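chain below, 378 aa
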Amino acid sequence: MAEFGNRRTAPPQSKTAPPPARACGWAITSGGTTHAGHDVWPTNSCFLDARGLLGLCVMARLLNMLANAFPLWVLSCSTLALFWPEWFSWFRGPMIVWGLAVIMLGMGVTLTVDDFKRVLRTPWSVFAGFAAQYTIMPLLGFLVARLLHLETPFAVGLILVGCCPGGTASNVVTYIARANVPLSVLMTMCSTFGAVFMTPILTKWLAGTYVPVDAAGLLWSTVQVVLLPLVVGLALHHGFPRLVKAVLPVAPLISVLTIALICASIVGQNRDAVLRSGGKMLLGVFLLHAGGFALGHAFGRLICFNTTDRRTLSIEVGMQNSGLGTVLAQRHFPDPLTAVPCAISATFHSIIGSILAGVWRLRAPRGDAGGGLNQEPL
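prediction:
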């Protein structure tokens, strides 16, 4: 307060003082990465009134809820494609490639340089996830295809999806399961970057027993649809942070709808083949992912992960980047049926992962305090 004669007057308010802020809680996935925290919105009249702020909070939660319904989107669209294939079959060719690039770009904008530094601080856990991803799933895909005597295109497609990196939905499933989200994010990031070399090499080795595989072509395609969008997204995150913050709330839903459209398109284009030979092929895809979840959990127990990290590893191994498998199948294998197991894969791993997340969410582990062995049964 300042005093002038007998009058007390308040000092003038600064016109440049920052406006008060309020926070809106959120937890979203973007390009496979789950974030939990608060968005801060300015609330002065130049930006938003109270009703506008409430509307933004409601919108953020609605977008988050719609994105978390990923399994329902994929299952619904794929089922509709069996009855009305023309609704989805128009989405094909270059549009599928660009669709996957958009998904990977969405993941890229959530990455920071600090994410790569965190890998160096937890190298053992991340390496274990990387090793499990590229040993359990490729070999399991090959064994299931052999045991079920799948037709050649279905066998190659099953092996191809087994050789893909962790799925972009694994992080949100990890979040729902109350498992280790930061570890899941790091595992997804590392397996995705590793896919540039691991997916072509493993596909050449395992699927090459069925058909000729152009490993160099697979490598170049993986660079185009995985590495380049991730690098561009990382650059956007650091170069245009305000733009990225504005896009993040809607990015997860765009990714979810795009992958659902890709899967439904493949199912619609190959409707007759799916209905004719679907029984054995569907069993093969189910066994691949069910086995991935089970063996990922068992591997975590073997290397003395605690309960939370075992669940994280199980989800990461069991859920594949089916969109990448679909694009590679369409681009590098002449038989269109090769892409069908990749499209069906998204439905199975989403449903199995969601069921496990619901069960594990109700069975919170007791006594997890970081790494190490935990004696709980699950």
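The domain at 70-362 is CATH 1.20.1530.20 (Na+/H+ antiporter like fold). The mean pLDDT is 76.
thats it, cya
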